[in-house]
Amino acid sequence: MEQFFYTETMTVMNADADFRSLLKPSALLRYVEQISTDHARAFGMDDQFFKERGVTFLVGKQALKFDRVPQRAETLTLTSRAQVSKHGSVKRITTLTDAEGKEVAMVDCRWIVASLAEGRILREPGWTVENFWNDTVEGELPLQLHKCKDGLTSAGEWTAHYSQCDLNGHLNNAFYLDLVCDALPLEVMRKGPVTFASINYHREIPMGETAEVFYAPSADGWYVVGKHNGQTSFECYLEVGKTNV
């Protein structure tokens, strides 16, 4: 069956690269967030469209995997596909290929539609758009977390500052990975780039408010959890590679 998709090219900007001149994982999520928005706008789903319906899209969970971490100034082709809502979740798979057409990264993002007036999750968007949704989108990444309950180390409290928040006035979904990487000991991040990350968003962190972040080694990587007002705000599992191939 024919797959409906949307594609764009993006170039890794200096500000999106780390001290190795490699793309930061948070920047990858920002690229995917942008192409998702551009895809929707291309089919008439702009800000006014959502305002009239009193709804917004939020990220419930997502995962990323690097086969090779792109370098600064590298041009990438992003291809994104969206699946019809199932059980209140919209699956979107975005792949990134390099100049030779080789896949270098993939992001599996699960969006949810929320009613702004009622403050609840909707099981169905409530509208259809021709040639936008796919009945099924192939491919997925592990979204489960390798949790730790014991041996957690506090990395301190972190505030959702102005520069990290989105149009909803909450910490932007991509910036959670910056928070996670900053919370881990620097010697961990010096070992290599992040090669895999899975993150669940439980409760938003409003601008100006703080969350205490904890971390612990788990499975082949690290488990990081943030707590806001005594409740879990987010959980993340990530793996750090030794080399870039």
From TrEMBL:
Residues 6-115 form the Acyl-ACP thioesterase N-terminal hotdog domain. It holds the Pfam family Acyl-ACP_TE_C. Residues 157-235 form the Acyl-ACP thioesterase-like C-terminal domain. Gene3D superfamilies: Hotdog Thioesterase. InterPro entries: Acyl-ACP_TE_C, Acyl-ACP_thioesterase_NHD, HotDog_dom_sf. This is Acyl-ACP thioesterase domain-containing protein.
